[in-house]
Amino acid sequence: MADRTQRTGTDRLTGRLLRGRAHAEQSVRDILATRTGTRVMRLDYGSDLAALRGENLTAVNVLRAYAEIVEAVHSQEPAVRIARIVPAHLEGRAGVIGFDLYLRFYTYGHLGDYSVVEDMDIRVPVTALARGTGALA
C-alpha cells in the first residue's frame, strides 16, 4: 500500500513549501477572496461574497454570507469542513464584518480519507457587508 501524504503547495507570498493545515488555511482564504468566474480554466473556483459588498448589514445578508462561505469552502476544499461561524465586527461603527471560522481539518481529506481529524480556526476579515449603502473597498 502506498504511503499517504499530506497535501503540499507553495506559500503564495514567499514561495516556501506549505503542508497540511497551513496549506488548507491558505486555500480557504484564497477561495473566499477570489470572485467566482475570474480564474481562467476554473470558472467555478471562488465565492460570490463580493456580490454582498455594500449591502446593508442585516441578519438576512449575514445569513447569505454564511451560506456562501459554507458552500464555497465545502465544494472546493475537501480537507476542511466548517463546524461553526461566528460574525465579528472589525471596524466598529463602520459596520465592517468579519467571520471567525471554526473548522475541522482532515489531514488526508484530499485522498478521501476522513479518519484523521483536528480542529483549527481562522479569522477571515470579509469586508463584504457594511451599514448604510456605501460600498467598502
Residues in β-strands, percent: 15-25%
Determine the structural class based on helices, strands and strand pairing: alpha+beta
Count of helical stretches = 2
Measured on Cα atoms, how large is the radius of gyration? 16 Å
Shape: globular
Uncertain spans, ≥5 residues at pLDDT below 50? 130-137
N-to-C CA distance? 51 Å
Order the strands across the largest sheet as they lie in space.
3-4-5
What pattern of helices and strands is seen along the backbone? EEHHEEE
Helix content: 10-25%
Q: Mean of residue pLDDT?
A: 83
Biggest sheet features:
3 strands, antiparallel
Q: List how many beta strands DSSP finds.
A: 5
Name some characteristics of this structure.
137 residues, 2 helices, alpha+beta, 5 strands, globular, two-stranded antiparallel ribbon, 3-stranded antiparallel beta sheet
